[in-house]
Amino acid sequence: MLLEKIKSPADVKALDIKSLEQLAAEMRTALLKKLSKRGGHVAPNLGFVEGTIALHYVFDSPRDKIVYDVSHQSYSHKMLTGRAQAFLEESHYGDVTGYSEPTESEHDFFMVGHTSTSVSLALGLATARDVLRESGNVIAVIGDGSLSGGEAFEGLDNAGEYATNFIVVVNDNEMSIAENHGGLYKSLAELRTTAGKSENNYFKSLGFDYKYLEQGNDIASLIEIFKSVKNSTRPVVVHLHTQKGRGYSYAEQNREGWHWAAPFNIETSEINWGSGENYGEILGLYLMAKIKSDPKVVVIHSAVPAGIGFYEARRKEAGKQYIDVGIAEEHAVALASGLAKGGAKPIYSTHGTFIQRTYDQLSQDLCANNNPATILVTMSGADGMNDTTHLCIFDIPMLSNIPNLVYLCPTCVEEFKTMADWAIDQTEHPVAIRVPNAVHHRSDIFEKDYSRLNKFKVVHRGERVALIGLGDFYQRAAAVALELRREGIDATLVNPRYASGVDKDLLLELAKTHDVFVTLENGVIEGGFGQKVATALGDTCAKVLVRGLSKEFYDKVSFADLCEKNHLNPSQVAKDVMQLLS
Amino acid sequence: MLLEKIKSPADVKALDIKSLEQLAAEMRTALLKKLSKRGGHVAPNLGFVEGTIALHYVFDSPRDKIVYDVSHQSYSHKMLTGRAQAFLEESHYGDVTGYSEPTESEHDFFMVGHTSTSVSLALGLATARDVLRESGNVIAVIGDGSLSGGEAFEGLDNAGEYATNFIVVVNDNEMSIAENHGGLYKSLAELRTTAGKSENNYFKSLGFDYKYLEQGNDIASLIEIFKSVKNSTRPVVVHLHTQKGRGYSYAEQNREGWHWAAPFNIETSEINWGSGENYGEILGLYLMAKIKSDPKVVVIHSAVPAGIGFYEARRKEAGKQYIDVGIAEEHAVALASGLAKGGAKPIYSTHGTFIQRTYDQLSQDLCANNNPATILVTMSGADGMNDTTHLCIFDIPMLSNIPNLVYLCPTCVEEFKTMADWAIDQTEHPVAIRVPNAVHHRSDIFEKDYSRLNKFKVVHRGERVALIGLGDFYQRAAAVALELRREGIDATLVNPRYASGVDKDLLLELAKTHDVFVTLENGVIEGGFGQKVATALGDTCAKVLVRGLSKEFYDKVSFADLCEKNHLNPSQVAKDVMQLLS
């Protein structure tokens, strides 16, 4: 076996083409085996095995610097840079993360998980090299899907101005997560069908030299084309036509379905998605019903349609009432604002980690104009994705402090639906709704009208202690109430519903009969909801415990550990409350 | 005079070409006169007088919808849509804002002030039109400079996919605020020199049809080309070569200097910039000295170099150590992260209102990677720009809640320099510095090391009342202390220095001898600094008054009025404190 012996890129350079091809086969087998056990990005990694081998064969990492976009195609790179064991031995699977990671290797330059950033980050390395009068090649690897993000354009445009070594490898597998969207993709297709000769060349229009390779999974051709641009003194794009999912027939045939997979059976291709309800499917059913019942409804997503259960059949069924804008969150929000202004009922949804990509558009394009679009922030909270680059715990500080934006936090599916019904049909406010990761159900009756902004709901009125549980942490507040009851305390239980403001009248009234307030939220404390409550009660005698997560970039920390560490477990909260009361 | 009689676009349509040319001359005279009295965007407006006339001659606003990018070229549009009086009579100059404004007219669809948004907003209107089965043309007007922003790319890319009426007018005056930067501009120049025939056509590569007009200030030609695209059923770019500053010789010759001007003398061209120190020049001198003394320093700006006093001579002097990335804040931050990773010392500066455009890059590209770049957030606070779209009051909630980022708030020029010296040379943290609008000086001795994070400085230790004044509001806290002294209170005065965290040890210690804490910050309260203090003191008996601005999109409200309204005046604060003490 060759792969076992690859300790660094130097070992790759020592092999002949035939051995490199054997190496590729071994890497693919190892990839599939690990992915089938652990889950992960299947199709993107399978498509770039040969590209990665050729890069390390031709260039001299880490002196030559390779920056991967999103880095969910960087598993092969990890295998060839001293980390093969983490793909060969099950007991070492956990040694590496799913993204590039500087703490793992000098061959990784940035921790990356959001798209469209590689060109700018790599251009920074290239510019530092030039300013410090160093040498070496700088290579940004970017998938065709990531080209739809504005940051990638900004980076390419800036890079196109410099007469210096800067190599952009476009890994064109004809797919984003789902199909690509954007006029650009028509011209990329033209470039593919004309072997790179089409007049419509986006990269040339931004000042790049340009080379095309149709055989993007052929190692010898890849080596040849990379050699031809090595030490280039001009910015150059190497456009590779690769095959997403290559070498695993199921993934070759269903590239979207195999972009990311939970653990699966290699033979049968059966993916173990786990059981139980999830918000993807709940949203899919809900939004499709809205589309069917109201021709004004337009659902927008930015390239991750599974987040709202919009798989292919549903996308087709939705017709013009569903828009995938590509990986273009900024545009998505501005588009939603324009749709609302034009009389439609836009609903834009993205994950809590990606809503970060469009702060200014939320503020300027949407909220300063006070247009009534609905924004669904999905997978919110610390119990969802837990890679540093995919944390969904910063959305409350970001969204709840933008004027005009109403940020609603439902406690359960039923409340989500009443809130969304209101948000979509009202015409007074831009409204965001925090869709949790975990599915809860409650049998309460929820009000249908949320236009009295920041009106908290007192679910149970007790005394001395008031527990305010935001969104999916309402359940946690209720659990604290149970703990306190055992201590003889009949605590007040509040569902605040709004993260974007506080019910000051209620708080001041409660402060007359309550000594301690506790806020609980599933996100970072700083800049968040509880701090607003603490501030509103600042000039009273009440004591306020603000509970949530401390402001940190957590990496792969389990939700249970996070709760323990941040004193979020009901027994911990109850104990802290009892101490304050004593 | 024709202009006086233009009450709506219908009156424009009734004129012949010769009269339209007279109208253009009258508009230009009115523009210059108003701008010379009030200041404003001079050159952009002078260049698009004819374009605006032709748009209203050919299209039927508001049924046909025109969306202006940045909208600092929309003054002519205002003149032709019932608002001429606001440009003809000095007593009515204040009737209209400097940007498009839906509350002023049904011909304005969005309040706009940040760049690169028109395509996305207009595409929303076009999509709403199609979904609702309405008709009419939708036109986005965008300057060449604004094309460098990622949001504009995302919008164009998405629009290029649709087979529907969507017209993008590119107002190419060969300039951003300063010269353009980006490879794209080389191909725009090629299009100009080849009368639109160059192969490198960015717009075609995104799926647009394309038309070019060299005579972009000739009304008859403009009318002809607009007629040729009216009711187009495909997305089409109309590329106009216009002259920035046209008709005012000084502005024609110095287009950057006349992009925006304070009131000026039309005859002599003398601009009354006002006197006194400003941070633009302070930063220019400071940064240039850094560049000269350290070859690793790289100063980055995104197209508004006047903000750091980098006028042409200074840009030339800085050579490769100064990078203007175009209007591309996202790329700027990622580039800075890459530069820092590569061993350079990047300093990126942008205004407080524009830092909003790059939240995700600050979080992911920079802070998750913990690279030691320095970010200068200029013109911060409510005492600077006061258009809704240019408020610099939201940066504390945005920046202070991102993990790893150290957000420093200097109280004066001297402290700014010690903080910047530290930030640039240290290698542990990404550091942002809040550069105020107003220039203060203090003669204190400032520590040179800020690596003990969140360590507040007690400037005077008193008792009962602790006044914590952040950044330029430290002066205000000192003024409150004077007021309280008259009441017999010897208040403690604290310069917190850090907006991104609190000195909890100090606060808890002070809480033993202080009954009331007051925080003062020049920005919105929600999500900001004071709320962190209130939270830190939440389980003590101390009372906390958090003072700053309420969360609103203020429009043209004077700083004095804002302070009054938000109880920020020292006498108001002192009175509120005395009431709490009683």
TrEMBL record, chains A, B:
A single GO molecular-function term is: metal ion binding
Leading EC class = transferase
Q: Where are the transmembrane segments?
A: none
Q: Which SMART domains does its entry note?
A: Transket_pyr
InterPro entries (UniProt xref): Dxylulose-5-P_synthase, THDP-binding, Transketo_C/PFOR_II, Transketolase-like_Pyr-bd, Transketolase_C, Transketolase_CS
Query: Which is one Gene Ontology cellular component term of this protein?
Result: cytosol
A single Pfam family it belongs to is DXP_synthase_N
Q: Which GO terms describe its biological process?
A: isopentenyl diphosphate biosynthetic process, methylerythritol 4-phosphate pathway; terpenoid biosynthetic process; thiamine biosynthetic process
Pathway the protein acts in: Metabolic intermediate biosynthesis; 1-deoxy-D-xylulose 5-phosphate biosynthesis; 1-deoxy-D-xylulose 5-phosphate from D-glyceraldehyde 3-phosphate and pyruvate: step 1/1
Keyword tags: Isoprene biosynthesis, Magnesium, Metal-binding, Thiamine biosynthesis, Thiamine pyrophosphate, Transferase
Cofactor names = thiamine diphosphate; Mg(2+)
Q: Subunit comment for this entry?
A: Homodimer.
**PANTHER family of this UniProt entry?**
1-D-DEOXYXYLULOSE 5-PHOSPHATE SYNTHASE-RELATED, 1-DEOXY-D-XYLULOSE-5-PHOSPHATE SYNTHASE
Official protein name in the record: 1-deoxy-D-xylulose-5-phosphate synthase
